[in-house]
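> agent: user asked for a holo structure of the chain below bound to fe (ii) ion. Plan: (1) validate sequence alphabet, (2) canonicalize SMILES, (3) run complex prediction with ligand conditioning, (4) return tokens. Step 1... ok. Step 2... ok. Step 3 dispatched.
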Amino acid sequence: MPSNVHRVIPETTMGIPEAPDRLFILDSTGPHYDTAQILARLKQDDVVLVPNVDAAAVDGLICEIAERLNLKDSLELQAAFASSLGHRKNIGQYYMSVNERKHYHIVPPHSEGSSFVNLQIASFYCYENTTDGGETIVMNVDESSPVWDSLREHRVRGRFERPPTKAEIARARTLYRLNLPSDSLQTGDQIISRNKVDANLTVFNVLAKPSKSYSCILEQQRYGYWDSVMAVDRDSLKFMEQFLKQEGLLKEPPDYQGPEQLDWDSSRRLMNSGIDYDQLFKCKISIKLKPQDFLIQNNFSWTHSVNNWTPGTGVRKVAAAFA
Ligand SMILES: [Fe+2]
């Protein structure tokens, strides 16, 4: 039996099939890794796992992959911003801690970031994973699913009262993360709040229809099931709770009353999409990461998620890098 077989949790009766054939395991002793092969597997839309990567080598490995994809600037930018919001810390040169969660909190599937940031790759590196949970579940997004019509993304939009100067456009990008004119308020946007920030510019928070952006790995325009899509939908939390229950991966708190107790950021949830999440995802791969495991995936086509664990059963230290 190959040494990796025990990693993949067997398929259950869920609607999202386990797809162990989509996980490519690169057996390599390092310190030099066959990044051309990793890239080739990403182009086939597989997820790649490299076991036994020394912590001292992981920055070099992700850097080489990012360079091959012309994403090194993005990798460096993400690392630089890692701790700026206060909930992540840098680990090494390019990796950062994952968001801190309270006891029993789960992370529903999502692609990192938003359509504004447009991150292409997501990578995880495991230092320790000894809890009775902490399973990583990556899910492959169905690009042609009908449910995209019912999803919404939390976006920032802008509207100028008169034609803007170049300086005003640059200022809007820096201060409000607005790419104008493409981020202008659009028909169909559901306005949550508005703020007239100066004499010329009004900034809106809206729920917008998902839009496609470019995947440099797949070389096509794709929908991303971004964090900014997942986080606004109460039904994404309910889906994950049910999914984990059926997979036998949910750890219920002693006084468990419902999925809201598992939510690490309920303040962002604004709507119920009503979608059948089994229609959004084509397949999944479930992995209990081991120390020195390096995982990399296309951040457009594969979401990542984590189940919870019983407090006190161990330590989960997994670092993430994005570009
Ligand atoms: Fe994430």
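> agent: step 4 complete. Summary for user: The chain has six helices and 16 strands. Helices lie at 35-43, 55-68, 72-81, 166-176, 227-230, 234-247.
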